[in-house]
Amino acid sequence: MSRRRKYAVRLDGRILLDNLHVRPERKQSGIGRELLNHAFGWAAERHPGKAVCLEVLRDNSAAAAFYRRLGGQITKEFVERFPAGFDLPVVEYTWDADTVRERRAKMAR
């Protein structure tokens, strides 16, 4: 099992969640919401007062809609060059520190 970190603290202080994926057969089961809420809880505990962000490929419309439903705000759009030598458009979604804290509080109930 890989012990690679799945987050990074950005220079601006936000917590970047990296590589959140749900297997296709598990979509629409609630596991994505549970995973993201767990990540918010972790971030609020380990990095209180910090916003959380993640990146998604622009063409991944299902993921983008999911993040918007959960209150993610588009904070950046850019083109990323991948190691294989191709470029793809990416959208960054951010949840402010208050939203992260509120989601953690809901989980604790």
From TrEMBL:
PROSITE patterns: GNAT
InterPro entries for the chain: Acyl_CoA_acyltransferase (IPR016181), GNAT_dom (IPR000182)
Signal peptide (from-to): none
CDD domains per UniProt: NAT_SF (cd04301)
Span of domain N-acetyltransferase: 1-107
Family annotation (SUPFAM superfamilies): Acyl-CoA N-acyltransferases (Nat) (SSF55729)
Classification via Pfam families: Acetyltransf_1
Designated name of the protein: N-acetyltransferase domain-containing protein
